[in-house]
Amino acid sequence: MSDCHCNEHLATCPGKHTPRLRPDAVAAATRQADALALRVKGMTFRQIGDALGCDGSTAYRHVRDALAATLAECAELAEHLRELENQRLDELQASLWDKALAGVLPAADRVLRIMERRARLNGLDAPQKIAPTDPTGENPYTRLTDDELRAVARQVLGLADETETLTAAE
User: Phi then psi for 63, rounded to 5 degrees?
Assistant: First the structure.
C-alpha cells in the first residue's frame, strides 16, 4: 500500500479517511440531504421515511440534522464574511489614519464612521435602552387600562386611526 498525499484521492485511499469523508459519514450526509429535499417538496416525515426506507422519526432526525448542518455552514460563512469585512475596514482606516491624526477633518470623520461600522459589525455597541418612561423617570403606562395600552400599542405600531389619540400622561 502506497501513501497517498493527494487530497483528490483521499476518499479512495484506505486508512486515509477524514471524519467528513468516511463512507458512513458520506452516506449519512446523503440521506440527510435527500430527506431535506423531500421535506422541501412538502412531504410528511412518514412519507419521507417510506421513500428512504426508514420510519418517520428517523426521517425527522435526518431533516433536523440536515438543517443543523446547513445552519452551521451559514454561521461559518457569516463568520468568514465578518472577517473579510473587518479586514477591509482595517485597510480603509489605515489609509486614512495619518491624515485623521494630522487634523484633516474629513479624514477624521471618515475614520470615526469606519470605527462605528466596525463596532456595529462586531456587536460592540451596547443596545440602546428603550424605556417607557417620561423625562422624570416615571412610567406613565402603569396607570393605563388594558384597553388604553392596546390603543397606545396600535398607535405606536401605526395601526391606530388618525382620530384615535391617547396621551399616556393623563
Answer: -65, -45
